């Protein structure tokens, strides 16, 4: 599937808006809980909001998304676990569906806000600050 620039931009803004709304406590299936992030179900049209984070132990925050030229996307976010440590999660959108979230970093040394980018070939990289207990 090859998606034009305007459609990619619309998808990006749609996903970013949905993540922003849910991280602020609105527009999510967990209305008022701040625990969910939502996304449109298809890149060409708005669909029903869906939860892409599955660990409802705590609040999700600092969502970031990158969209590849083919319309695939990757989202990363921080989320508090049951012990109130911060974990780093990611999920991939293949143009139709989001994958189950994958834990990238456990919160032993609380990771900081992530950044994500996708290159021309569709490969993604995420970076984030993290302390080793002494140094950042």
Spatial strand arrangement across the major sheet? 3-4-5-6
Q: Structural class from helices and strands?
A: alpha+beta
Low-confidence segments: 19-37
Helix content: 10-25%
Write up what this structure looks like:
The protein is of the alpha+beta class and 136 residues long. The protein has one domain (5-127). Helices cover 14% and strands 29% of the residues. It has one helix and eight strands, in the order H-E-E-E-E-E-E-E-E. It has one helix spanning 5-23, and strands at 38-39, 50-51, 60-67, 73-80, 86-93, 102-105, 115-118, 124-127. Strands 3-4-5-6 form a four-stranded antiparallel β-sheet, covered by helices on one side. A two-stranded antiparallel ribbon has the order 1-2. The longest helix is centred in the first third of the chain and has 19 residues, at 5-23. It starts with a helix and ends in a 9-residue tail after the last strand. The relative contact order is 0.16. The model is unreliable at 19-37 (pLDDT under 50).
